Amino acid sequence: MDPADPTQRAEPNRALRLLVKYDKSGYSISETWPLETLAPASHALETARATSGFWVELRDAKNNVLYRRVMQNPVPADVEVFDPEEGLHRQAVDDPEGVFTVLVPDLADAAEIAFISSPVDPAKRQNAARQVAALPLRGQRRGKRA
What we know:
Helix content: under 10%
Largest sheet: 4 strands, antiparallel
Low-confidence stretches: 142-146
Distance between the termini: 35 Å
Number of helices: 0
Strand order of the largest sheet: 4-3-8-9
Structural class: mainly beta
């Protein structure tokens, strides 16, 4: 157990399961469940400038990163389709939309959750990640629907 990791300190451990909706207009939190469970441990809070990938960050009101979790990008760039003539192949998703869940610690100082991502386009996945959304966490701690 790393005492510097905020996910390992609180007793009892509190976490938030967020149902995140995404579409061409952006990201939104559509539902939140507060849980008494241990959230996944934080990854290193600092990252190199040209890092590619996808991760979420919890930030305080001064924009300090309190928690960072690297994960597989939940927004698909392409899907597998079957065509009787071509068989199975990948087809690009022009306007991806859907939902995913993320489990984060319920930290008292966390003011927002930020989503950092490399471009979804497969040809640009190795480009440096940038913030694609930042959503407030206020009002997200009591099992509410947005």
